[in-house]
Amino acid sequence: MRNVSASDRINIGVIGCNGMGFSDLTAFLENPETDCIALCDIDESVLNRRAADVEKIRGKKPANLYKDWRKLIDNKDIDLVIIGTPDHWHCMTMVAACQAGKDVYCEKPLANSIEECNIMIKAAERYKTVVQVG
User: Fold this and answer.
1) 11: enclosing H helix or E strand
2) pTM (2 decimals)?
3) How far apart are CA 103 and CA 13, in angstroms?
4) Distance between CA atoms of 68 and 30, rounded to whole angstroms?
5) For 52, phi and psi rounded to 5 degrees?
6) Which residues are CB-contacts of 40 (< 8 A; sequence separation ≥ 6)?
7) First to last CA, the chain
8) Whole-number CA gyration radius for the chain
9) Helices then strands (H, E): number in the chain?
10) Beta bridge mates, 132
11) pLDDT digits (tens, 9 = 90+) for 49-73
């Protein structure tokens, strides 16, 4: 992995570490500009297992492990939030991440209704954040 200056690094936090949330993180970590500094999952066994998995990939565990997604959003060092939660949590967590000035990668489907999609689009526009759905 090539050296990248600290100012060019993207600090990632993941909300929902099982399944696609961790798969998305693994893809992000293929880029030397990225660091996973925080994980959040309500299941502590998943949280600990994924922290160990990040350590295997990058040689160090994320510094912050949360069971409450709001604490991850409040972490000022996080630049990008990956949302890999069940669908019904996408809208609330994405809007909160945008309000906190974080860019977002959200798993599909974006939301459970057209109205939720409209709310999420308005949040990204209002807070001038970058949002990608995959």
Assistant:
1) strand 10-15
2) 0.93
3) 11
4) 27
5) -65, -35
6) 13, 14, 15, 16, 17, 47, 65, 66, 67, 68, 69, 71, 72
7) 26
8) 14
9) 5, 6
10) 105
11) 999 999 999 999 999 999 999 999 9
